[in-house]
Amino acid sequence: MIAPLKPTPGHVPVYTRDIVEWEEDGRLFSPTFPRNSGPICDGMRPCLAERGGAVLEIGSGTGQHIAHFAAEFPRLRWIPSDIHAEHHASIAAWRAHLNLPNLEAPIFLDAAQDWAAQVRGFGPLAAVLCINVLHIAPWAVAEGVVRGAAATLAPGAALILYGAFKEGGQHTGEGNAAFDAGLRADNPDWGIRDIGEIAALAASAGLGGAQVARLPSNNLLVAFPRL
User: Fold this and answer.
1) Residue 57 near residue 78 (C-beta atoms within 8 A)
2) Which of 42, 84, 148, 162 places its Cα 20 to 30 Å from the Cα of 126?
3) Residues β-bridged to residue 82
4) Of the candidates 212, 54, 67, the residue with the CA atom closest to the CA atom of residue 123
5) Are strands 153-163 and 219-225 parallel, antiparallel or unpaired?
6) Between the CA atoms of 89, 149, 179 and 7, what dihedral angle is there, to the nearest 10 degrees?
7) Contacts of 185 (CB under 8 A, 6+ apart)
8) Does residue 1 surpass a pLDDT of 50?
9) pLDDT tens for residues 144-170?
């Protein structure tokens, strides 16, 4: 077991547009979870079905997704992480509520930093998962996610990204274009990322080409395997 690290001071703003509800035990609820958890889970199966070991999620948020995945993939050990203390409380509450033996306590992880050494104790990772994070974070986070994944994944294991993305510089729908404009109005360092730009990062870090699955609501699940 690796002791959780304390968060760095200063810091990263929390995306607050989505309304979350909560229970008295501290569990937070995201309104997008019921409609996207199933498709994400199905989209990940080809990457995870034959694997064992640990999966690190970067930016676990409420903790609902990783708890769902821990139940769906019991052979894998699931490691939640987040930079925000309020999210840690919700992740811990979901973990206590569901009592899943393969769901670990959350760790503090700043994805924009060099985090690979922080997770070495979990062994070569079966996957690194990042859901709905890159568009509400500076580009340095995308760079850090890719760089850290390349350094920690087992051979053949994948960095798995989910969310809204551009393709060839174009939005995949009018709703995503409006979403992007709103994000950039909130913070000029945010915004929907282009798959081509992320693929270039991945290639420079030693990861393979993008494997793209098209999910509902113009969202994509993109896997970059470690070569």
Assistant:
1) yes
2) 84
3) 108
4) 54
5) antiparallel
6) 30
7) none
8) no
9) 999 999 999 999 999 999 999 999 999
Q: How far is 206 from 4, CA to CA, in rounded Å?
A: 28
How much of the chain is in helix, strand and coil states, percent to nearest 5? 40, 25, 35
Q: What residue has token string 């990322």? A: 193
Residue 108: pLDDT above 60? Answer: yes
* Chain length of the chain: 227
- The tokens of 14 are what? 């929390």
DSSP code for 49:
T
Terminal C-alpha separation, the chain: 28
Task: Round to whole Å and give the CA distance between 182 and 180.
Answer: 5
Say how far apart CA 82 and CA 59 lie, in whole Å.
5
